[in-house]
Amino acid sequence: MFAKLKQINFFIITLSILVFPLTSLVKGDDDLEKKYNNFVKETLSVRNQLNSLPDSNSTEVSVIDNAIKQIDQAIEFAQENFNTKDFEITEKTLNFVDRSLADINNSVPKEFVNDLTVVDMSELKDKELTEVYQVSLEMKNSKKEKLTSLVKDMTEVDKKGLNLFQISKNINSLGVKTISIQDIARTVVANPTIKSEVLESAEKGISPEYLAEQLKEAEKLGIAESTEKLSEAAIASGFNKDAMPSLETMRSDFFDADAHNAAMAEMAADIQSGDVGEGVGAAEAAASYTEADRDAQKAQSEADCTGSCAGDTESGK
Amino acid sequence: MKKLLAITVLSLLWNVNTYAVEKQKPLTVVEEIQQLGIFSEPSKYPEGMIEFFGTACENFICRADKATKKMALTFKRSKLYHQRKPGHQLYALAMFELFYLNELKKKEKRIEKFLLGWPEKNIYGKEVISLIKLNRSKEKMRKSLGMDLNTSIEEAMERYWIMGDFLQKGEIKKEKISKDIKKREKLIAKYKKAVNKFNSALKNKEDENLYNKIKNK
User: Fold this and answer.
1) What is the least distance, in Å, from the CA of A282 to any CA of chain B?
2) Distance between CA atoms of A162 and A153, rounded to whole angstroms?
3) What is the tens place of the pLDDT at every residue in A58-89?
């Protein structure tokens, strides 16, 4: 009898050790599965709606339609990988889809355009000028980092069977400005450690001769950029340790204000296209949190805290 | 007993292995809470923001409430509105900073209670999760302008405001767009949103595990 009880006890302990972590993982996977099903439903619906749109004589419209069709393959590949539980490749493929869709969206003419070239940089206050300069510089760096990360993702996806370099080339050849061969060449020149594997993948989708040509160009440009940086630093010397050009330089004619304005316009477009949208959504939800919600939450929290929370008020005072 | 030990070790190894393939952002619950920051009233506000508050609203609570209302209103505006008033979304991001700070102030004591009880008890776990989520949003918003969680609130608000002013200085030009293009623009936005939502869920899988860890305590 005692041995039997011991066996039952052992069985219960073993079961709880194995089942507890499993249940929490299963819950997480269930949520993801639900989100995946919504994703499949939503993307399918959009694709059907796009396919059912009547053909247009406009070149602009047909460019958009054909560019979107190029994305289909990547979407299907992401779905196949999710179904085989390869979440990493699913995510990397979707990173590419996201960037491509953003580029296609940017190529679509907009009803309202904010023309920042009219801004007279010489009229900006010192603080404003410095901030604009810094933000556009930081955005330039962040853009480079994002591109490097995406090129790495594209290489990983190629190893699993889909050549995104080819898709990217097709979208570019339609006239949509997206990740170009020049971008890829510049990325590998700036990151020699990833050069061989990226080139191996890229060459499957892009002519090796053309790629070699672009690599040479990128190498030349790399040297030119370093020289430019040196002269920028020389101009900046005496201003501050971060090699910031002087305010006079920023106000002068040879300061590329247009490039900085373009970066700002891009930032505005990023914000509008929802790159910070998720955060905005959370803020919106939190801000529209009503008193009733607050009361319900307070009651729930008090019920949860078994006497040890006495004296606390909602405001925390 | 040996068998039990073996099963325990195997089970632990299995768990470690499952999480090892995920991203390298393994902050513990306590580390996450440390990232929330400590409440301290901003020492200065952007000039434009002070004008917006007006002379009758000078204390932090009034300013935070006013900013939160305005922020929520701005975020709810249509895409067309933001195209016509490109700087307003950035002003709203500056106001989000105050909103976050106010939430932190309101929940400060509860965070303390949570930390005292954790990991044995889950006291005010929901509030902690909601603050972590807000902090993540704040981080993402700041990142869009090259800032991070180490940037002071004064600096962040100033930068958002200046960039908002800068965008407002541009000239808004209206172009005529065909119906065909408009339809496609809407569908592309919908497509991008669906992709973005699911991709975020994949990226935030680890965050969800953290929230579940708190919830399931």
Assistant:
1) 7
2) 11
3) 999 999 999 999 999 999 999 999 999 999 99
Query: How far is the C-alpha of A228 from the C-alpha of B92, rounded, in Å?
Result: 37
DSSP per residue over A249-312, as a string?
HHHSTTS-HHHHHHHHHHHHHHHHTTTTHHHHHHHHHHHT--HHHHHHHHHHHHHHTTTTTTT-
Interface of A with B in 36-95 (CB under 8 A): 36, 38-39, 42-43, 46-47, 49-50, 53, 56, 58, 60-61, 64-65, 68, 75, 87-88, 90-91, 94-95
Share of chain A above pLDDT 90, in %: 33
Write the CB contacts of B164 (distance below 8 Å, at least 6 apart in sequence): B48, B87, B88, B89, B90, B91, B94
Helical axes A257-272 vs A126-159, angle rounded to 10° = 60
Q: Rounded mean pLDDT of B41-62?
A: 95
**B133 touching A (Cβ < 8 Å):** yes
Q: Where are the domains of chain A?
A: 54-272
A213 contacts chain B (CB < 8 A): no
Residue A114: phi and psi, rounded to 5, are -95, 105
Name B100's Cβ contacts closer than 8 Å, sequence gap at least 6: B134, B135, B138
Ordered by start, the domain boundaries in chain B are 23-176
pLDDT digits (tens, 9 = 90+) for A84-139: 999 999 999 999 999 999 999 989 988 888 888 888 878 888 888 888 888 888 88
Cβ–Cβ gap B188/A271 under 8 Å: no
**Mean per-residue pLDDT over chain A, rounded:** 75
**ipTM confidence:** 0.77
A312·B113 Cβ contact <8 A? yes
- Tell whether B50 is within 8 A of chain A (Cβ): no
The 8-class DSSP code of residue A175 comes to: T
